[in-house]
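Hey,

Quick one before I head out. I ran the complex with zinc ion overnight. Inputs first:
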Amino acid sequence: MAAVSLMKGQVSWKIMYPSLITYIVGCLLIFISHPVISATPSPSLGFELSQKQSDSNRAVRISKSKYQGPIFDAHIHYNPPGRQNPDNATPEMIWKMLKSQNVTHALVMPTPNEGHSRNHDEGAKLKQELVRVSGGKVQRFCGSNYLNLWLHRAYHEEYNEDDLASRLDLLRKDLMSGKCIGIGEIATYHFEKNPRQSGRLLEIPFNFPPFLKIVSEVAKNQRWFLLHAEPMDPNGKSFEAQVFGGIALLYEQNSELKLILAHSAMTNSDNVRQLLLHYPSLMVDLKLVTKHHEWRYLEPIVNTDDNIYEDWAKLFEEFPTRFLVGTDAKFGRQGWTIEKYVKRIASMRKMLGSLPTDVAQRIAYENVHELIKKL
Ligand SMILES: [Zn+2]
């Protein structure tokens, strides 16, 4: 038990150490260890990190017209059934609403914190029902409901190997079922950015062995892995070394990894350019955040009026095949109305309208379509 705790880089004070020497070594490790540099040394980032915070008043590109074509929304959520689920969140209603917005396809997945819901298994069934109702035009990412919160607790408290083995079994079943295009949304660093997220912190170093086992299963099965990793916390503390060093570690161990970074990787456009140059198979999904106060230090790609920053627009033109639409809709959550989704899609169409048509089409639809076709 002590060995497991030391490997994790953090030590539960409840653990009884067999000897005083082990205890002292454990205490020393608390002081000198850092999650990422503990067990497996992370490779260097492989590129020069830019730690600049972009000016939120910098140049934007004004959209002249809205993109009118089909959208493939590669990042939507759908809560497990519960007392708080609004009536408008049946699979039929959701599919009808997507179609009404000319969102012709979508990828639905559990949120990183879905494991908090006691009936998260039912949530998986509900998502399956949405897939069925849509005739397969909505597909699923699986697994984060039984993996993500478990990983967080396993790292910060303790875990037993049998429990890990049974979760890996579930993961293999999901990967081989043919019903999951990948695993996600898994969050390694997910901070409490607003009061709604209180009690929802997720912090799992990339070199935590159970996490690495999960990633390698996904890579072996050539499915996609959708990762949410915040490189800064809301107080401005940097986790860039952990996140970008962690990504380097994942690719070092799994050269065939199919990785999607959620929400434009939540860093500045210079770092995203470096990531794209470095990892030719890496994809990035895009969410438009206008409430900048809820996205402190995380680099929104639009200003508070919903206009795309020029540096991001240029990056999309430079790498038109690497970005996807990912609204991060939360269907079935209290307060999540249909109007909210309509608004998000309207903003997305406005943003896409500020790009050359071929680039807009690629980001809106073609990129994710191709990525799924290749599976
Ligand atoms: Zn999400």
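Residues 1-33 form one domain.

Talk tomorrow,
K.
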